[in-house]
Amino acid sequence: MIPFAVKRLLYYAYQKGMTKMFGCIFCQIASHEKPSTLYYEDEQCVALRDIHPHSPMHILVVPRKHLASLNDITAEDEPLLGHLVAVAARIAKEKGTAASGFRIVINTNADGGQTVFHLHLHVMGGRRMTWPPG
Ligand code: 5GP
Ligand code: ZN
C-alpha cells in the first residue's frame, strides 16, 4: 500500500504536470483563447456549459483568476467566492430551476473528484439529485 504522504506527492506532481504540459484549460477559456459555449461573463468570471453534462442544466462558473482549488484561496478571494455563488444562483434562476431546485458543487482535489485544477463551481439542475453523492 502506498503511504498517504507519497500519494499526496504523486497527486501534486500530476496536477502541476498536467497544467504545465497543456496549460490551464479554464484560463484559456476565460481569456477566449479556447472556444466554449459561454453562457455569461463579467469582469470576474465566466459561465459555460460543461462539455460532459451530468444533468439537463450543467454549467460551470469559472473565476478569471487562476486559483487551483479551494485550498488556494486567501482572505482577499472571499468577495470573489461570494460573487461566484451569486452568479451561480442567478443562472439557476434564469434556467428555471430555482423553484424545482438545483445543486452547486465544488470538487476539491483527489477525494473530492477534481479533474481540472482551476477552481470552478458546477451548477446542476433539471433532474432530481441523489444524496449522498457518489
Ligand atoms: P471537476 O472534475 O474538476 O470538478 O470538473 C471539471 C469539469 O470540466 C468536468 O465536468 C468536465 O466535463 C469539464 N470540462 C473539462 N474540460 C472542458 C472543456 O474543455 N470545456 C468545457 N466546457 N468543459 C470542460
Ligand atoms: Zn487557470
The third-level CATH topology is: HIT family, subunit A
For this structure, what is the CATH class? Alpha Beta
Shape: globular
* SS elements, strand count: 5
pLDDT averaged over residues = 92
Beta strand %? 15-25%
Named CATH architecture: 2-Layer Sandwich
- SSE order, as H and E? HHEEEHEHE
Radius of gyration: 16 Å
What compounds are bound to the protein? guanosine-5'-monophosphate, zinc ion
CATH superfamily: HIT-like
- What profile does the largest beta sheet have? 5 strands, antiparallel
What structural class do you assign from the helix and strand content? Answer: alpha+beta
Q: Which strands sit side by side, in order, in the main sheet?
A: 1-2-3-5-4
Q: Ends: how far apart?
A: 24 Å
The overall number of domains is: 1
The helix fraction, in percent, is 25-40%
Which residues sit in consecutive blocks of at least 5 with pLDDT less than 50?
none
Number of helices: 4
Please provide a brief summary of the model:
Helices cover 34% and strands 19% of the residues.
Main attributes?
134 residues; alpha+beta; HIT family, subunit A; globular
